[in-house]
Amino acid sequence: MPLWDRRSWRRPLPTAAGGGGAGAPERPYELVVFGASGFTGQFVVEEVARAAGGGELRGALRWAVAGRRREKLQAVLERAAERLGKAALGAEVGVLLCGVGDAASLAATARQTRLVLNCVGPSRFFGEPVVEACVENSASCIDVSGEPQFLEGMYLQYDGTAAEKGVYVIGSCGFDSIPADMGVLYTRDKLKGTLTAVESFLRVQSGPEGSCVHDGTWKSAVYGLADQDNLRKLRKRIGCAPVPVVGAKLKRRGLVFYDQELKEYSVPFMGSDVSVVKRSQRYLHTELQETPVQYGAYGNIGGLGSVVKLMFAGILFLLLVKFSFGRKLLTKVIPEFFSAGRFTKKGPTQKQTSKYVFVALQIKTT
Prior knowledge:
- The protein has helices at residues 6-9, 39-53, 70-83, 103-110, 123-126, 128-136, 148-165, 178-190, 215-226, 228-238, 273-288, 304-321, 324-333, 335-338, 350-355; strands at 31-34, 63-67, 94-97, 115-118, 140-143, 169-170, 197-205, 213-214, 257-259, 264-268, 294-302, 343-344, 357-359, 362-364.
- It is an alpha/beta fold.
- It is 44% helix and 16% strand.
- It has a six-stranded parallel beta sheet with strand order 3-2-1-4-5-6, with helices on both faces. Strands 7, 9, 10, 11, 13 and 14 form a six-stranded mixed beta sheet that branches. A two-stranded parallel ribbon has the order 8-12.
- The chain has 15 helices and 14 strands.
- β1, α2 and β2 form a beta-alpha-beta unit.
C-alpha cells in the first residue's frame, strides 16, 4: 500500500509508493523523528507518542527518535511522557544517534525505517543530506519546510531516483502548507458550483502570554528573500506549463492593501503556500482533468500604525538581505532586535502555542 497516494492526498513532490519495495525485509521502525531534540522535533515527538499511545493507529507503532546527543533525546522522551501523563516512553521508543554532517550515520538511520520525519532546519542548509540518505536507502522522507527553493531543488535533484526506489519525498507538511493546500481542496469539494479562485488571509491572535516565533523561521525568510533569483532559475529548469485560468483571472494584490471585508491592511504571505497549491492544481488538471483553482495567499497586519512600522522595517530588511554582512546581522548578531522581538532562539512557549488562533479563507467563486 502506498505510503502517500497523491491521487487521494494531492500533495506536491510525490515520487512513488512504498518504502523499500515489494519483498524487502521488514525494518526495525516504521518511522523515525530526526532532529527530535530541536524546537520543532520535540512537538512532533509528543504528537507521535500521543497517536501511538492513544489507540489512533492500527496496531503498535514501531518508532524511534534520532539526533546527535543521546541525553537530549532522552530528555525529549521524558518531557513527552510527562505531558501525556505516562511514567516513561524510553522503553517503547528507539533512540538513534546521527547528524546532518555524518552521511554514514544518516544512511544507517534511513536503512532502519520506512519513513523519516525530518525536523532539522533551515532546510536549505540541512535538508538535502537527509533527503539523499532517505532516497538512496529506500526510505520515504517528510518535512515541514516552507522554503520554495529547497522544495523545487529537491524535486529536480531526486524525483527520478526516488521514483525508481519506490519512495516519497514530501515537503511543506506543516503550517506551510497543509492548511492552504488541503483547505482549497476541502472548499472546492464542499462548495456548490465550480470553484475558480481562493484567497487566504492569515490573522494570528495570541493569548495573554503574548506571541513569538522560533528564529529558524526567521532564518528561512532571510535567506529565501536573498535567493529569489535562484528560485526563478529553478522554476525555469522545471519548465512546467502554466495552469489554464478558468473564470475571471485572479488579480494580484499590491505590496500593502486594505481589505474591505476584513477591515485590516494586508500583505502577500511570503511562504511556500502559493507554489504548493499551484503544484497540486497543476497535477489535478493535467493528470485527472479537474478544474484548476487559482490561489493567492496574504497575511493581515492590522491598522495604519502597523503599516508604517512594516514599511520602515521592510525597507531595512530588504536592504540587509542583499549583502552577506547584512544577513549575518539579521540571523546571528541581533535577530531579536531586527524582528522587534517576534523571533527568538527559544521560540514560543507551550502556553503561547496553545493560545494561537489562525483565521483564513476568503473565497471567490463562479
